[in-house]
Design a protein that fits this description.
single chain; mainly alpha; 78% helix
Length: 268
């Protein structure tokens, strides 16, 4: 009985500790006046409205969403053939391909960002809007690569063998058998890359500097002119988008399976 009480107390304290910063930021975003006071002084949604009505914040929002969509699509386009290659060829040397796919996310973000800065500067493309899309697409390719690898591993080999027995070639099997089975893994990998790209700062800054303002870059630039509750509103918006996206994945997909929990079940 005491152990259960201690466990609940520990978990409750942990949840409180983790949620406290978000509660403070959310409270600040509702301030009626231009103040970062907590508890909030009055209640107002004007700072949330400013994200969509102010030209600077609205453009930063459009930039972030556009970059995130492009980067998430690109990361899946790159990850899919890599994951397929790992599944199709069960050779020890094939794992080298997986390491190459995981490398951008394994390295410290600063190192990866400096690599992008050096590359785009040498190529003469530094500051171009499309460079941040490519940079984010490569940087976050690890996420769809992991989910797609899990998806291919979950494919029932008997279905592939049955399709081959019926005369289907590799392209037909991929289109009619494999793609429908791994579609949830494609969507989840794209969603993970989208959410992280939306929040990423250092790689975006190294790729385009201040020439293209995403929301994180806009927040940093705004800090030079003082603190406003709009920054807190953007933070709450980021959290809300993440909760909605991951909530939809959990609702319409099998989130534990997408995260690889099925492997532990089979091992057990």
């Amino acid at each position: 009985m005491i152990n259960k009480f201690v466990l609940r107390l520990f978990l409750g304290s942990l949840v409180l500790f983790l949620s406290a910063p978000l509660v403070v930021v959310a409270g600040v975003s509702f301030n009626e006046k231009k103040s970062l006071s907590f508890p909030p002084l009055g209640f107002s949604l004007d700072w949330y409205a400013q994200i969509f009505t102010d030209d600077g914040w609205r453009q930063a929002l459009f930039n972030s969403v556009g970059v995130a969509i492009g980067a998430s699509c690109l990361s899946v386009i790159v990850a899919f053939p890599l994951a397929w290659f790992l599944w199709r060829f069960h050779a020890p040397w094939a794992r080298i391909v997986q390491v190459l796919g995981l490398a951008p996310f394994i390295l410290p973000p600063v190192i990866t960002a400096l690599g992008f800065l050096s590359f785009w500067t040498t190529a003469g493309a530094y500051g171009q809007p499309w460079t941040v899309v490519i940079s984010h697409g490569i940087f976050f390719v690890t996420l769809p690569l992991v989910t797609l690898t899990l998806g291919f591993d979950a494919v029932d080999d008997s279905l592939v063998e049955a399709a081959a027995t019926m005369g289907a070639d590799d392209k037909t099997i991929l289109r009619t058998v494999i793609l429908p089975l791994i579609l949830p893994y494609i969507i989840s990998g794209m969603a993970f890359a989208f959410v992280l790209s939306l929040n990423e700062y250092i790689v975006a800054y190294m790729a385009v500097g201040f020439t293209v303002e995403t929301l994180p870059i806009k927040i940093f630039n705004s800090l030079r002119y003082g603190y406003t509750p709009t920054m807190a509103s953007v933070t709450v918006l980021f959290v809300a988008v993440a909760v909605i996206v991951f909530g939809l994945i959990a609702r319409f997909g099998d989130l534990p399976r997408l995260l690889g929990a099925w492997r532990h079940d089979e091992d057990g």
